[in-house]
Structure to design on (190 residues):
C-alpha cells in the first residue's frame, strides 16, 4: 500500500502504522503478550518493539510494502496487524524469495474471520494493484489457526518449500519447522 493509503474491508480499515503512542503501544502488545505469541520464539520489551516499529515504518516508506495496523471500522480500535512484506534478504537462503502475507490479531478478535477478510483484500491488492506474480505465507507446523486461514483464502501448500526457520533458536525445536503456502496471480480466488 502506498504510504497514506488504506484498504477498507467490510469490518476493517488497514492502514500504515503512525508514529503515535497509541500505535507504538499496540505494536508492543502484539509483540509481547504470551497468548498471541505461542508460535513465536520472541517476546519483545517496549524498547525492542519500538526499534522494530521504526524499522518496519522505514521499510514501508521505502517500498510501500510492510505490516499494517488493522482497525475495527466501527470503533476505530486496533485489533491486529497484517500486511504484505518483502521477505527479508537475509532469510531468502532458507525461505522462498518474494513477498509474504501474514497476520496477528488480538485474542478478542479471534474466531470472527477477520484475518481471512483482511488477507483476501491484501491478496487482491498485491496481485491487481501492485502486480505481484506470487505471494507466500508461512507458519510453524503446529500453528493450525494460521494454516487454516491460508487454506481459506485459497493458498496451496508447497511442501517442497517447507523449511527450518533460521530465526528460531535451536533450543526451540517445536517452533523451528515451518510450512509454506503460496498463491499465484493466475490462481482462482475464493
Amino acid at each position: 500500500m502506498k504510504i497514506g493509503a488504506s484498504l477498507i474491508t467490510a469490518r476493517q480499515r488497514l492502514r500504515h502504522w503512525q508514529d503515535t503512542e497509541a500505535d507504538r503501544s499496540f505494536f508492543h502488545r502484539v509483540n509481547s503478550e504470551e497468548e498471541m505469541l505461542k508460535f513465536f520464539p520472541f517476546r519483545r520489551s517496549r524498547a525492542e518493539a519500538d526499534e522494530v516499529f521504526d524499522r518496519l515504518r522505514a521499510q514501508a516508506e521505502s517500498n510501500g510494502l510492510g505490516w499494517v495496523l488493522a482497525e475495527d471500522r466501527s470503533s476505530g480500535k486496533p485489533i491486529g496487524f497484517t500486511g504484505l512484506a518483502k521477505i527479508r534478504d537475509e532469510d531468502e537462503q532458507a525461505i522462498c524469495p518474494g513477498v509474504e502475507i501474514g497476520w496477528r490479531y488480538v485474542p478478542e478478535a479471534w474466531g470472527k474471520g477477520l484475518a481471512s477478510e483482511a488477507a483476501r483484500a491484501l491478496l487482491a491488492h498485491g496481485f491487481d494493484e501492485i502486480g505481484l506474480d506470487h505471494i507466500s505465507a508461512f507458519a510453524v507446523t503446529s500453528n493450525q489457526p494460521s494454516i487454516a486461514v491460508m487454506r481459506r483464502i485459497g493458498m496451496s501448500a508447497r511442501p517442497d518449500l517447507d523449511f527450518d526457520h533460521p530465526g528460531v533458536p535451536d533450543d526451540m525445536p517445536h517452533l523451528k519447522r515451518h510450512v509454506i503456502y503460496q498463491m499465484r496471480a493466475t490462481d482462482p480466488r475464493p
User: Anything to note?
Assistant: Residues 18 and 152 are 30 Å apart (CA to CA). The first strand starts at residue 6 and ends at 8.
